[in-house]
Amino acid sequence: MSEMFDKAIRHQCLIYVSPEKVFDTISTGSGWNAFFTHDTEIDPRPGGRIVFRWKDWGPQQYTVNAEGKVHRVDRPNRFVFEWYPVGKDHPTIITFEMTLQESATVVTVTEDGYPNTPDGRAMILECATGWGEALTLLKFYLEHGITYDQARR
User: What does the pLDDT look like over 113-143, one tens digit per residue?
Assistant: First the structure.
């Protein structure tokens, strides 16, 4: 077994909607599909299956699936799941925490569990960028109804 990388990805974003609205978006496939993925499936129960899908995403127009399972569901405060960004031997744990702050929600996403290998280090950099992008797109979607549509090219 590989030594684990001793740092986690962590991003925060302030979104001017309720924690329930954030939670209901990030705990459903249709929610993710509205702002970040294509044909994602989520069974939002502990042990439920998750399949994130991206089709022709971004400038590289990559198509990829990432599978995992739900670990914890605590509406509207926390949604925790795992997936396998570095291969079937190395799941990482993603935790979304929603905290009410006056009339907005602080959304904190952390991801931990990367192996300290060349592939693990490359993937943590890619996912750190991806989570920042995801939170930005989530904010634009929830506050303004703006969606990312690759088909508009």
Answer: 999 989 889 989 989 999 999 999 999 999 9
Say what the pTM is.
0.93
The closest of 13, 36, 20 to 149, measured between CA atoms, is: 36
* Burial of 37 (C-beta count, 10 Å sphere; 0-12/13-18/19+): buried
In the sheet that holds 41-42, the strands lie side by side as 9-15, 104-112, 92-101, 78-83, 62-74, 49-57, 41-42
- Domain ranges, ordered by start, for the chain: 9-145
Return the H-helix or E-strand segment holding 130.
helix 118-144
Considering the domain delimited by 9-145, tell me its CATH architecture: 2-Layer Sandwich (3.30)
